[in-house]
């Protein structure tokens, strides 16, 4: 919001296209711009011609974080395969610290760490894009990596799954956390393939870097025999495939044999539902003794898996169908045989014998060394660049900036295709640049028609009135248990729209005031999806004498409607 204020202040400072260094420095201090940018802008800048200071020079991103640069951090790299105890050791240091942060790639991991610390009598807040759970007296916070605080100071911080700094879409968030968190100790966990890159990146920070390597705690045995038939599926198996449609096909085939019922886990399921499905699979008392899942099981869920079975070794990555990479195969296969579980020895195989050579060679190979880390310009830079080019349209600003961006060989610009799609939409609306930037950062899948339409309607309402009421596009109390796969997919999309509303409400609270309603309806979506999954497997997780989830759903729905919309007349049971 600081830079949105900057535009107004800038216009009041001078109507001239030439703003001198004293004016700029005063402006940036008033709006709280980063001290790095403040120091760099020490000469006159013409916003209508080339600047002496090159805003597109991104070759020294470590200087974007002056707080962290003031401290000589002790950085500990905990490196090893899945199920090696690397994160466990880092979290023990976090637990023992007087203040700290945990930065994870998934909400599920942030939830788990917050729960763990609070259970250990270490008060811990939870902050994700869609949640704020603040604990009285807490000096620790568990959060998703995009929410990492680079302005505060901590005794200890943990960054989990650091190899994701090479992710083409989210890598920039891991780079930001690695360079920007100001802590005495920084514990970084992940794949050993990331070590050389991290060491190069931190050479210029004056940090002290130590590397600790870990070995897997329990054996992982690659089998020489494929599964071949679903008749050979047994309790504790996890069959992995890479499309939602295939997950339900495999579930149906396995359950048709009459021996097993299947839990399912995949990316577009709400996180709460994924957790519930994992819990049912892990529970000895549950009939759901087989898991059918996508690569969403690769991180974030504790699963008691005996054997991983790859139904295919290919996946569609959004652009083309390709073979799984070595890191992908290792990450998924490593979920079998969790240390301390009822299956201490893990096994891994494939459905088809023709896929076994790729599986075996990948498990024996070292992961390719990461060459570059993701990077993305700060809003400070983009907003000044827009002023220099006299435009408030975000799409051309971002496109031109990235085309001219200069990088060192250790970095790449994160893929912003989704941001550019959103920018095309919001540039049609009378919005401030910062508001456009927020909408472009929002967690929306523009390839999902319902999600995209939700964002468009939110942005249009916000631009017209500055206020977005949920009832304008969604009527609470109208959700139903899906009866078909298409209806299930639609409900998952509705959950995404409600999730988007909650995300926006944390950034524009006065303009999106119905957060509690949206959150309650998100919970309803999860309940209805769980009901569908129960029905599709012919399974009820409730014991005798307990109400069915259908009854609970109706009860919950009526209670929530009365709570938020007292004017609606709802019959009592």
Structural summary, described in words:
The protein has about 575 residues and is of the alpha/beta class. The protein contains 20 helices and 20 strands. The strands form five sheets. The protein has an eight-stranded mixed β-sheet with strand order 6-5-7-4-8-9-3-10, sandwiched between helices. It has a six-stranded parallel β-sheet with strand order 11-18-15-12-14-13, with helices on both faces. A two-stranded antiparallel sheet has the order 1-2. The model is unreliable at about 1-30, about 40-50, about 540-555 and about 555-573 (pLDDT under 50).
Taking the alpha carbons of the first and last residues, their distance comes to 48 Å
Determine the mean pLDDT. Answer: 87
Strand order of the largest sheet: 6-5-7-4-8-9-3-10
- Rg measurement, Å: 25 Å
Number of helices: 20
How many strands appear in the DSSP assignment?
20
What attributes characterize this protein structure?
573 residues, 20 helices, 15% strand, globular
Would you kindly provide a brief summary of this structure?
This protein has helices at 2-13, 21-31, 35-40, 66-69, 86-96, 107-119, 171-180, 195-201, 244-256, 271-282, 326-333, 356-364, 379-388, 394-404, 417-426, 433-441, 449-465, 485-507, 515-537, 549-564, and strands at 18-19, 45-46, 74-79, 100-104, 124-128, 131-133, 140-144, 154-159, 183-190, 208-213, 220-222, 237-240, 261-265, 288-293, 307-310, 314-316, 321-323, 346-350, 373-375, 411-413. The protein contains 20 helices and 20 strands.
